Amino acid sequence: MDCCGLLTAQKEPVPLKSVEVELQVRDHVATVVSTLNYENKEDKPLEAVFVFPLPGDAAVCHFSATIGQTQIVAEVKEKQQAREEYDDALSSGQQAFLLEESDQSPDIFSLSVGSLPPGESASIRLEYVTELAVQADDGLRFCLPAVLNPRYQPQGSEGASVQVTSVPASLVPYSLSFSARVSSPRPVSKVESNCSLDPLQYLNIEQTQATVKLAAGHKFDRDVEVLIYYKDAHQPTAVVEAGQASAKPGSLMGDPAVMLSLYPEFPQAVMSSLASCGEFVFLLDRSGSMDDHMNDSKRDQTRIGSARDTLLLLLKSLPMGCYFNIYSFGSGYEHIFPTSVEYSQKTMEEALKTVERMGADLGGTEILKPLQHIYSQPCIPNQPRQVFVFTDGEVWNTKEIISLVKNNSGSHRCFSFGIGEGASSALINGLAKEGGGHAQFITGADRMQPKVMQSLRFALQPAVVDISVTWDLPKGVSVTVLSPPITALFQGQRSLVYAQLSGQVGASSEAAEGCVTVKYSLAGHPSQNQLHFSLTPAQDTGLTVHRLAARTLIRSLEMEERESRREQDGGLKKKVVELSVQSGVSSIFTAFIAVNKGDGEAIQGPLVRRNVQTPGECYFMKNKNKSHAPPRDPLLQLVSLQKASGCWELDPALAAALGKTSEEVENTKPASVNQEVWATLLALIWLHGFKMDAQEEWELLAMKAASWLRAQNAPCVTECVKAGNALLGCNVQKVALGL
């Protein structure tokens, strides 16, 4: 097993002993404190490199090490300077630690632990802050990645400085303990996880504070995913945080900071009018890893199988009159049509035949080229372009891909789906954020279909335009907004805005209030939402909001620097380094360096280098057993028979999908009604009678069927619904069918 890079040549265990994680959640954001405990069991000094994933939008804000009785706290320095200090310390026999972000992807960090004396233990404490993503059911998602999947590096790309290999979880020789503390202006209604948790403990009567722990005996064999639910989740909130006493007044860290979470609620009348146009481009990952199962149970469907079923639902739910195309990619890419085609029965059937044959057989994960090809196609007038990207997100050139999407954000919206454990959150969130769309993660026992159909509903909603945010503050208080302008708003989706408050913030009266107004235009109707908030800073918030505000500004400046690298003089880089050092928040141009200059003797003996990885999968050991295809889900069987127009035909296949014989279905048809109307009504009654638990998946195609039925002006619909209920053993009301 030494091929996994986890054991030494002498089969001795790696030096990481245990990991402790504390999560502190404040409303929509979190501080995560990880403690990594090492031990050098070699008889020589040791240098270990521990490579680990963090959420893509995380900001590392503290790094310290305790060796024996000595604690050393790292400082943020310009990256090259930090590396030189690290090398100098090692060559003079001092202990040193270096933490830096990968140049290619912001969600991989590598930690070098240098010169641990034989038999010595070291404890490393790492803190980072991150925003929590909102899920379809309003839960806030925190994920502690166990997996750092092997990342696909495109042919001929510049070197990957962090070599990432991966290991089976059963060989991970360290233990994990995990606890969370949640506080919010609103009560916490529940906390759920894909791993066993001890019961939730409330800390106050209002239930606005609570703690929860991972149950004992957790094997670190998968991501730990935690979902937090608040009561009244859609109320907008503001958290004002006092500045750091030791920082210079007027600086980002010295002034108070505010975080707004905005949830626009749109008029129901506008939301129910779904668009009947658009160009829908689906981009599907067909790299080898898509052949993995959706979760650990081998009975489960593969990722590519689930994606094929999802494309079936998407294609059946598209509105008549729109345009579409399907691309798939691996080391190269393919498309079904040379350019997007109008949606019709013929083009839908042709696309579905091709989709059925799609396997995870295109090699690596090269997503940049197909995206470049999609953006090179001219947009179709009056058909807004919507791009849907499905990937298990294992790429090296994340930043380059996100820059491309940002540069084309004026011409499309991008909806992204991260499939399976280890999908890169930096890639999935970055695509949606820069593309003005929405990101979804599909892990563990999640079904892909409801999440994707929710995003299709967002894509069919009218786009919100002319978004502006205005502030009304007391005299003597001014605001500097640190977040980039809001480019997309969706029904019930959160937008976070960070800002710095300067001037006489504390001097104004206790009851001083600020007000924020968000204005936008939706389907031609001007609208606005207002939020009034107290300027008195919340107690005991630490510096979570400040650090996330600094991280937001750093990411914007990094992107600007990347785009203008050719013609500039390093001014932006200097700005990023200054801000990173001042706020203590990591960036691509800085690193955390800690050197133990203690008065002890230099450590004697040559250094041994070890690479320690977090668990993933051992690709070369995997035995891919091709299992027999499971029987088709009855829902998908029925859906596959629907025509592009929205109707069904009365035939033996429909009868079988409904669990009836052809005779039963034909003999109960009321005489005055035609076969397609009868077939379509039966399909709708069956969906409403037996599949309400999966309504999110079929709702759009049922709306299409209902509008087809209304257009037929069929006589005696009431009689048909009654006869259909009798045949299928249901009790569905005509009004429920939308008729």
Automatic annotation (TrEMBL):
Pfam families: VIT, VWA_3. It comes from the Eukaryota. InterPro entries: VIT, VWF_A, vWFA_dom_sf. SMART domains: VIT (SM00609), VWA (SM00327). Residues 279-456 form the VWFA domain. Residues 1-130 form the VIT domain. This is VIT domain-containing protein. The gene is LOC115566844.
